[in-house]
Structures are given as C-alpha cells and as structure tokens.
C-alpha cells in the first residue's frame, strides 16, 4: 500500500503525484493542513516537509528521493533520463532547490497578504476543520511561514528576478528540445513542469479541485510569461 502525505497546493507534491499517476500506481493521499502537518510528519520522518511517501514499511521523504525510490521499486513506465547522470542530478537540484524555492517565495509573499486568497488553497480537499483552524491560526501562521522560509518584500523581489531567469533559461532549452535531456520524456520533464506548474496554472486541474484567482502581481507575472511557459502546458497535455 502506498500513501502520500501532502499539501494539495505544494508543487513538490504535484511532482510526486505526477510520477505516481504516470506509473499507474494505486495510492492514497493524506492531505494535511499547513501548520498542523509538523506533528504528523515528524512522527514519520526526520524533517517536517512534505511530500512523504509511505510504501508498506518504507518511508521516503524529499520529492527527488521519492522518485528514485519509485523508479527502483516500480521500474515499469521508466522515467530514466537519457543522458549524463551527473548533468541530470544537477538539473534536478537546480529545479528543486532554486526554481522551486524562488517560486514559493515570490508566490507566498503575495498570497500570504490575503487570507481570502490563500486559505482556500490551504483547505481545498483537506481536513474538515481547515476553515475554522485558519480563522484562529492564520495571522500567526503566516508570520511563522515568512520567518521559516525567509519571505519578505525584499526576498520576494530577488526571487521574482531569479524565477524569471529560470523561466527564460528553460524556455530557451525548449525552443530547440522537446525534453529536458536526450530524446525521451523523463523525471526531469516532470520535475521542471510540476515545479513551474503554478505558472501554467496546471496544478489546479490535477492537485486541486478549485482554481481561485491569483493576487494581481502574480496574475500579471503569469500573463507576461504566457508564451514562455507554453512548453509546460504542452507536457501536461501530453503526459499528465
Ligand atoms: N526539497 C523538498 C522540498 C519540500 C518542501 O519544501 N515542502 C514544503 C511544502 S512546498 C513543506 O512541506 N514545508 C513545510 C515544512 O517544511 O514544515 C522536496 O523536494 O520534497
């Protein structure tokens, strides 16, 4: 039995869901509330972050480690990268640790300013007590999240610039290549498209059942990059 502990909103969780779905594995999800998750996750794994995958007696944390585990355990519908292993590891690290983190900083800086924008994202498909939990806890929680992830007006400006540079870099690559590396669809394509899925609003179709409006600055950023992120929508339409 496979269980994925997750936040529906998290782009790292979307990356793992895509792999599980692509491999046509049966799994159940446990949706956690941001803020209530720590107690549950720390009983399972060393850090408090989701995604965490539990497969029978095995617990795996960290999206790229989960994908390596799934590739080794369920080799059907392989997502192996066609090309140099070191280069592939470097791409995945860049996507997870830089692009994913910059996008989250920029997104949350704007989302956390408006409980009405973010609480629906935190509660959709989640435990019933979500709305009442955030009514009481949101203000303190958003401050803690900002501290924990160093999210403020200044870091958000830097994050937007780095995110833009990453979008430009990946768009350049996709102008001449269908895939991140080599000649076939791989885990790197899932990593890049899932981590940037908020740019294409594709996670709304797959991870979440509702698509609330984005705050103005995020909507403007998404719109101004519409053409540059077409490759993400193409990968979703073909492989998701
Ligand atoms: N490198 C990790 C990043 C996971 C991550 O940052 N998860 C965030 C959600 S987007 C999280 O759970 N944050 C809450 C926490 O760390 O307690 C991965 O790829 O799984």
What can you tell me about this protein's structure?
The protein is α+β, with helices and mostly antiparallel strands. The protein has two domains: 2-73, Glutaredoxin, CATH 3.40.30; 85-239, Glutathione S-transferase Yfyf (Class Pi), Chain A, domain 2 (Up-down Bundle). Helix content is 61%, strand content 7%. The mean pLDDT is 94. The chain binds glutathione. Glutathione binds at residues 7, 10, 12, 38, 48-51, 62-64, 96, 104.
Question: Which consecutive residue ranges, at least 5 long each, have pLDDT under 50?
Answer: none
Instruction: Tell me the number of structural domains.
Output: 2
Ligand catalogue: glutathione
> What share of the residues lie within helices?
55-70%
Radius of gyration: 17 Å
CATH architecture assignment name of the largest domain: Up-down Bundle
What's the total number of strands? 4
Shape assignment: globular
Order of helices and strands: EHEHEEHHHHHHHHHH
- In terms of quaternary structure, the protein is single chain
Report on the biggest sheet.
4 strands, mixed
CATH topology of the largest domain: Glutathione S-transferase Yfyf (Class Pi), Chain A, domain 2
Give the terminus-to-terminus CA distance: 22 Å
Average pLDDT over all residues: 94
How are the strands of the largest sheet arranged? 2-1-3-4
Q: Which structural class do you get from the secondary structure elements?
A: alpha+beta
In CATH, what is the class of the largest domain? Mainly Alpha
